[in-house]
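Worked Example 4.2. Consider the chain below.
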Amino acid sequence: MAPKRHSGAGSLPKAVDESGTGPADPAELYAALDLGTNSCRMLIAQPKGNQFHVVDSFSKSVQLGQGLEASGRLSRAAMRRTAQALKICRSKIDKHDVRRMRLVATEACRRAKNGPGFLKYITQETGLKLEIIKPEEEARLAVISCAPLVSPRTEQLLVVDIGGGSTELVWIDISRVPRVERPRALMRLNTGFKPDPASPFPAAHVVDWISVPLGVATLRDQFNDVENDAARFALMSWYFEENLSEFSPYEAEQTREGFQIIGTSGTVTTVAASHLGIRRYDRSKVDGLRMTTDQIDKVIRDYLEMGPEGRRLDPRIGKDRHALIMSGAAILQALLRVWPTDRLSVADRGLREGLLYAQMSADGVLEDGHY
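Applying the procedure from the previous section yields the following structure tokens:
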């Protein structure tokens, strides 16, 4: 399947819950739900200054895309698992009386023949109205979520979001934006990848973006028939790199000074946790961590030496991640091979955070200030 190209930037749709219309109260709660190929995740948060405070959260591996690669359809078992998870999300939304929300589905529902029908079933079962978003919006939201992690010294930025069913890459030139304004310029991308010519603010320039229909679950499924662990890993990394050939900065050599890669995904945070040696995951130690290429390579070599059984038993990887970590590591290795860098910034944030920032920015409930 060919990578999906950007065909123009549109504005973010309004929140799907009509009860959330009208002037926003800064004390009001917001919800953001991301239904992906592998996981169902939700955050409920309240605006706080120029950030937000998380009030409640939910995350569960539902494996919605299990079997999708072979059949082109969501299986009944996967749909039942997902419906049960979404019922829990609905109960949390009701408990906190959330009126403003954005509930989205990504690659699995985009690709499945029965994706739209499944979301109608979810509405009947739970009352939740999920929308399938396009790849360009998914990429844009990933960038917004990572804006606070951008270094003031960064001039060329690559944001990578490794999902279950797809991987989004966005290359942004912020060299003409004053250093203090760079995070805010990225936040303003919530209105589209093309800058508003009437805006008085300095704009970030999106050089190119791509959505590769290979994530940790779909890439693993492509090479399930390869029995040798190391050979399977090498093939996955090579195959992912092949799918980057249409990305315009692919051939361009970047100087390491002023260049920053931010990786947001369960893969990147798991690699970071393994590097730190923490057995009980601690977001405060992982989010914003900067890892060298050598440190990442060492973790991946350790994973290969462990083998499938060793990875399954390693508490730093976790029961929900062990079957997917090598496909994610293959994607990460391919990216670092194409764009060598001294540091990769780890982001324990993604689509949910981007959805929250975008809603709150649109409602004007976030204060100005340094991120």
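The domain at 142-351 is CATH 3.30.420.150 (Nucleotidyltransferase; domain 5). The longest strand covers residues 51-61. Compare this with Example 4.1 before moving on.
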